Each structure stands twice: as structure tokens, then as C-alpha cells.
Amino acid sequence: MPQVKITETVLRDAHQSLIATRMRTEDMLPICDRLDKVGFWSLEMWGGATFDACVRFLKEDPWERLRKLREALPKTKLQMLLRGQNLLGYRHYADDVVKAFVARVADNGMDIFRIFDAMNDMRNIRVSVEAVKKAGKHAQGAICYTTSPIHTLERFLQLGVEMQEMGCDSVCIKDMAGLLTPDVTAKLIRTLVDELDIPVFVHTHATAGLASMCHYKAVENGAAGIDTAISPFSGGTSHPPTESMVAAFHHTDYDTGLDLPLLQEIGFYFREIRKKYHQFESEFTGIDTRVQVNQVPGGMISNLSNQLKEQDALNRMTEVLEEIPRVRKELGYPPLVTPTSQIVGTQAVLNVLTGDRYKTITNEVKLYLQGRYGKALGKISPQVRHMAIGNEDVIECRPADLIPNEMDKLRQDISTLAKSEEDVLTYAMFPDIGREFLEQREAGTLMPEPLEPADSDSVNGKKAATEFNVILHGETHHVKITGKGYTTHDKRPYYLSIDGVPEEVLLEPLEEIELESEGEGGQKTTPARSGQRPRATGPGDVTTSMPGTIVDILVNVGDEVKAGDPVLITEAMKMETEVQAPVSGVVTEIHVKKGESVTPDEALIEIE
Length: 608
Hints:
608 residues; alpha/beta; eight-stranded parallel barrel; 24 strands; globular
């Protein structure tokens, strides 16, 4: 029997699952010489959310990360996760963008491309697979595993056969939420191995506590390889520990042949590294068997908890977890993986917080129901479809067939900032933050979000209070800190509840304040911030349903609008939502600008 192949995930999915994809390249490079000696079948280190996190939070060039890791790991095959026609963004791209992106990734050193589509719509991975094969690299087709009345062994086998016929070099069962059980794993892998001529790999998460057993049953039934994570970044919403699986297969027919003491040495390194990122730890990344019911992947759980915390509604998490399966059924049982996990999860949050199901519907749900993400396997609720898109036509073709070539326009749009084709593709993935990244690079002002010291939330060993009373002008106000955001433009948002009313406070570091303007005696000061937005009280005040960012303002002062007309577009949890006019009238005040953070109960626009 052949040795089981190990794909190590610590440089991508493991830290994406446990610390919000925040590990920096500077903490990867020092251990690469030892990682390169292990003999992994592959090292997953790019793709997924890493591209977004590099540009948005870490202010690193993701292409430079790829090149540095390629140089530091000369003997190990590098692997990435690619979302088919979505690439690494959250929409479908034209075929010329997909081909250009894959070509540049391959030229920069990638060996294995794990390619999936969130809808398991094989039309959406075909161009990616063809581009990888043209580049002479390994194309691994990934089947998104999920459970529902319509997801059967026969259906998964059909997907595997289609991937093999498409030219994939291997197939992977991608169990992003940790739904597999040992018995199902054995049957599924045996079915695929018996029918396919290409190797079968298994990727599962340890959320339900079953992943190690599933891996063992998978290998016993013919799986060629499994995904693991070095122990300090394993378990819970991550993967089974690499060291444990190596030990489990030692002295068996499936012995990995990997050096356990070397792996343990690597583990000691990452145990210290994880401490640096304590501010991104979440209480929702441990074992949680509820995933077997609600099917929520770990990364999605942490996003949901952050959104609810900012809304001072974390106590409603159970309601949201109960709403997610209902929304998923109404949308035709899509697997919950990026971007469908965000599409379903954000809509579930809106349904719970507004108290009126589908009163507010995200733009992405509307696009999904138009067929612009692909074909749903299950039946979509006609009532929900009508609420979202009315009598609009639903497309039947491959969504990308409707997208004209984009690369020439992208090159033109970013010509003054792009220094390479890679820069153009960064802009293509995320136009707003990509442009901002390139502008800051040009100005020499790239600055990653700060890492908090280990004791940042404690004083003399005691935790700082998060709920207290403040006496101001003789009146007592009850204040509860419900959450904090990430620093942007040198300001950090904190979300508070003051006497039960949600508020947002933006804090600037004192050092930055002192550098802004000159005061008396040479002391540097800064003017106070302008007044906060007024609280929404009137029937014509436009508000949001949840905290988010202003993406676009669709009206100007003086415009006449009708009730229901879209006036703003906001983004929350990477999903965009149209905010509609609550009444008919004339726009008299606009209190927001593009890029600003907003919270519920603020009057963003006034209509009279």
C-alpha cells in the first residue's frame, strides 16, 4: 500500500480558520527551512482568504508572499485554493481574467491548484482547470461536501466523474464545515476510488470532533492523501493535528514516512507565533457539534459573532444558527462555502435582526436568485425569489458567458499605479482596496494593522471592565462595550451600547494626534472630530439594519425619491445591500461619505 500523502495547511487554511487569516509573511519565513525538510506532499500557503487579508489588513503584496515562499521552500510543492470563476474575489470574472490570473500564479511558483465552485456547478471551474493544465501544473478538482435531501453518494460520484473527464489530475472532497462522519467517509471515498482513475484526497475540518477518525477511514478506503495542520494551529474549526495523524499511521501500511521529532520542533515554533495574534482569537473556533445541524463553517461562525457583537446582539447567535438552515433550504441547498456561506449567513442575520424575514435582501442574494452564481442543485422557494427579484428573468447559461473580456479595461483603469500584470490582477480582485493598496505603496505609507501586546486588555493582571456606569453632568449613563473593529486610516472603531442605544466611537492614537497641528507653547494638538451623525427619529430618516461600510451613495441633495427607491449601498460581512428610501420625498441631508463606517439607528440620509 502507498504511503499516505500529507498536505500541511498551517500557512493558509489553519490560520484562516483560527486567527482570521492574519499570520504575516515575516512569521512564515523563519520556519520554512524546517518545513521544507519534512517531505510533505504539498504545503497549502496561498489562495482562499489570504489574498484579501494581505491587501486589506496586513498591507503585504500577496504576490510577493508567493515569490518569497517559493524561494524559501525549494523542495516542497506549493498549493493554493482557487474559487473557480470567482478566483479569489467575490464575483465571477471574465474568462480572460481567469486565464491571466492562473498564468501569473503559475509563473510565480505555484504547483497545485485546488479548484472548487461554491455551487458545485462544473461549468464554473472549467476555464480554471484548462488554464492550470495549459500552464503545466497540477489541477485538483474539489467537490464541496454538504448534506441535504438532494446531496447523495451518486451525486458526488457524478461530480468526480465530470472532474476527471474535464482533465483534473486528482479530486478532493472539500468538507469545509466538518460534516463528514467516519461511516459516510468510508462509503464516499470507496465509491470514488472504485470508479475514478485519478487519486482522491480528503479535506475536512475538526469542528465536530470527528475529523481524525474520518481521515483514518478515508485512508483505509483508498484515499491518497489528507489535509492536516501542525498542532498549535489544529483542532476546532481547523484540521486534525499533523503530528497526531503521522503517529496514527506509523508502523502501518500507510506510514507517512514523515519525521515526527522534526514536526514537533516546528510545532514549538508555531505555538509561540500564535500568541502574537491573540486579538484575533474567537470563542467560536473550538469544537461545536452544532455544525452537524446548522452546517456553518468555522470562518463563517467568527464573522457572524463579530457582526452580532457590533450590533450588541451576540445573545441572538442561536436564533441566527437556527435561521441559516431555513435560508439555505429556501435558496436550494447550496453548500456553505465562500461566497455562498456569506450570502446565506448575512441574509440569516438580517432576517433575525430586522424581525421581518427578507424585509432587507442583499444584492448578492438577488444575483444568486438570478442565476448569476450558477445553477442551484435544489428547488428555490418561488416566494423568496419573487420578493427578491420580482419577475426578472433567471439566466440558464454559464454566468461568465455574459461577462465580456475585462483585462484591457482593468489595465487602463489602473495604469498610473500598476507596475506589473500582478498589480492589475490585485486591482481586479478588489478594486477599492486594491487601488488603495497600490496608492499607499506608491506613497510609501503602507502600514499593517497593529498587533496588540499580550496584556493589552488587562491592568495589573486584571481584565479591564467592558460594562460600567459613567456620570456626566450629573447624569448616570450605562455603557457596555460590545465590540471593536480593525484600525483603518489611523482610527479604530469601538462599538458601544449607551443606555441601550448602539453607538460607534472612533479613537485615534495619542501619538498621531500630537503630530497633526501645533498648539500653544509648541505642543501639538488636533481639532475635535466633527459632530456625530444625528440619531434616526423621523419617518424619512434612512438607516441600516446592521453595522457596515458605505460602498456607494445613489442620490444627491435635492433629488426626488419614491419609497422603496435605493439610496445607498452598504457592505457588511463582504456582502452588499441596497438601503431603500423609507418614504417618498426630497433628499434634504446626506450625513455619510463613501468608505465611512455606519451603525444602525444613525440617520444617514434625511428625506422630507
